[in-house]
Amino acid sequence: MKEIVSPTPSIVRKDIAAVQALFQQNVVPSYGRFDIVLSHGAGSYLYDLAGKRYLDLGGGIAVSALGHAHPAITEALVEQSRKVVHISNFYYHEPQGRLAQALVNLIGPGKCFFGNSGVEVNEGLFKLARKFGHEEGRFEIITTHNSFHGRTLAAIAATGQEKIRKGFGPLVPGFRQVPYNDLEAMRAAISPATVALMVEGIQGEGGVTPATAQYLLGLRQLCDEKKLLLLMDGVQCGHFRTGRFQSFQRILEGAADGEKFLPDGISMAKSLGGGFPIGAFWVRAPYADLLGAGTHGTTYGGSPRPT
Questions:
Q1: Which residue, 98, 163, 202, 267, could crosslink 237 as a Cys pair with Cβ 3.0–4.6 Å?
Q2: How many CB atoms lie within 10 A of CB 177?
Q3: Which of 262, 269, 208 is nearest to 234 (CA)?
Q4: What is the pLDDT of residues 187-237, one digit of tens each?
Q5: HSE (CB half, 13 Å, CA atoms) of 104?
Q6: Annotated catalytic, 148?
Q7: Which domains does the chain have, with CATH numbers?
Q8: Which of 126, 248, 270, 281 is catalytic?
Q9: Does the active-site annotation cover 270?
Q10: pLDDT digits (tens, 9 = 90+) for 59-86
Q11: Is 207 exposed, middle or buried (0-12, 13-18, 19+ CB in 10 A)?
């Protein structure tokens, strides 16, 4: 039978085996990896050591929004690196302020905090919620079944998937889950300890399941009624993946009062940096100063970024 794809040359097979051996000997095996050794990318394509081209439909788990080796990103990174790569958050610098302003303009009145990853900024929202409810002894955050909020100890407690939590008990207290898109289940789960509700506009890890407009509007009304924060994890479903900057903006298009809807906090990461590690959370104006000096921080977050 005629081979459609030429066999990999033996010298390349040795190179592939050498790279895989480096991983097997030196890298913690916390991922199930495909049997592919990649060398570079261009646009929507990735290339392995043998020169085989792959159409990248994953985008680095929803990270590479502008593809690979985009010249504008490369030029911005190089230009900024010639000035300064890192500035401590003890000082002001223009790029962080301009990026925060851009995000506020895309979402609504509020302020931003910058970190390095989605789970890091989700942790920031958890702390924001606890700070909000501290004086009243409220600390509980209700999330949903099949949700995904990251892999730190608090984030796996927030995540509604048993496979993510397995082997890491006892879980951080203060998180409970209810069915997604079920407003009455959320209402019934609220206790005197509840301080916030947290949902994804579109669930990703749990299967691509969008929230309904009625659900989001109902959550906003419920939070207003019960004095709760409404938090949204926009790490994967944000950044124009739906055609609008945040998925709730697309879901609520045409809905009565949909344009007035705002959550109290939104976490962002992944394609926010187009491949460059960055996380951010936005906090609505009434709560934007809850985390004062010394209550939250990061070493690398907020350093000069290409904006």
A1: 202
A2: 18
A3: 269
A4: 999 999 999 999 999 999 878 999 999 999 999 999 999 999 999 999 999
A5: 16
A6: yes
A7: 1-57 (no CATH), 73-287 (3.40.640.10)
A8: 270
A9: yes
A10: 999 999 999 999 999 999 999 999 999 9
A11: exposed
DSSP 3-state of 115: strand
Please, are residues 146 and 159 in contact by the beta-carbon 8 Å criterion? no
Among the listed residues 132, 233, 248, 281, the single catalytic one is 233
Which amino acid would we find at residue 135?
Answer: E
Q: What are the b/e assignments for 60-80, b being 16+ CB within 10 Å?
A: eebbbbebbebeebeebbeeb
Encoded amino acid at 15, one letter = D
Q: Which of 148, 248, 261, 281 is catalytic?
A: 148
Question: Measured between alpha carbons, how far is 224 from 202 in angstroms, rounded to an integer?
Answer: 22
Please confirm, yes or no, whether 289 is among the known catalytic residues: no
Distinct helix (H) and strand (E) counts, the chain: 10, 12
Token pair recorded at residue 60: 């680095």
